[in-house]
Design brief:
Layout: H1 3-38, H2 49-65, H3 75-83, H4 89-102
């Protein structure tokens, strides 16, 4: 196997692992959001039902599109930066998801 082929296989493996990690993190986060939407007593006062619904919707789009040039999500990063407390575990996950999505390592394989 030539060096180029080995490099290509390594990159494909890394992208696949990144995609799997991204998918797992998004699913965990969506589960947390569903719990907060169903039980408002668990939801911090600074998180609204509408914000959580919008975040969940955009997470679904991010998983489907996987390309920040075709879909640039507002809510995950917007809520992290502007509205929600930075040390909340949900906020930490949303920040990581936004960073993973924006770094371009999640492009669908050909």
């Amino acid at each position: 196997m030539c060096k180029f082929s080995k490099f290509t296989v390594n990159i494909q493996t890394e992208v696949r692992e990144n995609m799997n990690n991204f998918d797992k993190l998004v699913e965990e986060t969506k589960d947390e959001i569903r719990k907060l939407l169903k039980n408002s007593s668990l939801r911090p006062n600074y998180m609204t039902h509408e914000q959580l619904s919008d975040v969940q919707s955009e997470l679904c789009k991010m998983v489907l599109i996987r390309n920040p040039e075709k879909f640039y999500p507002y809510y995950p990063k917007g809520m992290v930066d502007a509205c929600w407390l930075p040390d909340n575990p949900l906020v930490v996950k949303l920040d990581l998801i936004a960073d993973m999505y924006m770094n371009g390592a999640l492009c669908k394989e050909n």
